[in-house]
Amino acid sequence: MTITLKIDFVSDVSCPWCAVGLASLQTALDRVPAVKADITFQPFELNPHMVAEGEDTTEHLARKYGSTPDQAAAIRETIRSRGADLGFVFNLQKRSRIYNTFDAHRLLHWAHLEGFQLVLKKALLKAYFTDGEDPSNHRVLLRLATEVGLDSVRAKVILAGNDYAAEVRTQEQFFQQQGIHSVPAIIINDRHLISGGQPPEVFEQALRQLAGA
Is residue 191 assigned to a domain? Predict the structure, then answer.
């Protein structure tokens, strides 16, 4: 018997631990065939007030978290290693800047309506963390939307306007009001919270318990 679990995956496309968490969750789902997941990616902006041109990554981390260059390098290596274990390639030397991600979230909201949200989310994570591309750049966003199968004309209209801005803001506020202030936050069946880029075993244990598997 297969059970379907509702999963709200609250995250940002500029969050490396969100990439780790998603890869871990998908690995766990592969290990528990009795569980199918209805995943919705919910918006969270790590840097909602980021300027259009972005900010140097090292300077940003030092200002926001007080990280020294050596501490930042150690964290990057931990992230790179965790990603490698899960088959996700972090080329963090290419991630030289932190960018605004609001337009990416608007596209992801639309992609959910069209049934393309997971593939777009993965494409956005790869574009930023593996390929070093700018997730605020409309040319990049339009190309990725088109590559995953979304309508390029509609995507261009969305990016040029303000479509789905209100919906994204509403969802962001909802999850913040539920106490979500860091990501990734994975909420299963509206009740069970798994925080952070946990290893697959943590997700697997939760999935088996909820499925009775």
Answer: yes
38-91 confidence digits (pLDDT tens): 999 999 999 999 988 899 888 888 888 888 888 888 999 999 999 999 999 999
Q: Report which residue type is found at 162.
A: N
- From residue 30, alpha-carbon distances to 24, 27, 35, 106, 208 in Å are 10, 5, 9, 29, 12
Contact 35, 5 (CB under 8 A): yes
* Residue 177 included in any domain: yes
What is the domain extent for residue 142?
3-53+100-211
- Largest Cα separation within the chain, whole Å, is 51
Spatial separation of the C-alpha atoms in residues 207 and 119, rounded to whole Å: 22
Q: Rounded to an integer, what distance in angstroms lies between the CA atom of residue 76 and that of residue 23?
A: 17
* Domain of residue 206, CATH code: 3.40.30.10
SS3 of residue 170 by DSSP:
helix
Residue 88 CB contacts under 8 Å (≥ 6 apart), including other chains: 19, 20, 23, 125, 129, 130
Nearest to 114 by CA among 141, 156, 73, 145: 145
Report the Cα–Cα distance between both ends of the chain, in Å, rounded: 10
Q: Is residue 21 part of a domain?
A: yes
pTM of the predicted model as reported, rounded to 2 decimal places: 0.95
Look at residues 141, 142, 144, 97 and name the one whose alpha carbon lies nearest to residue 123.
144
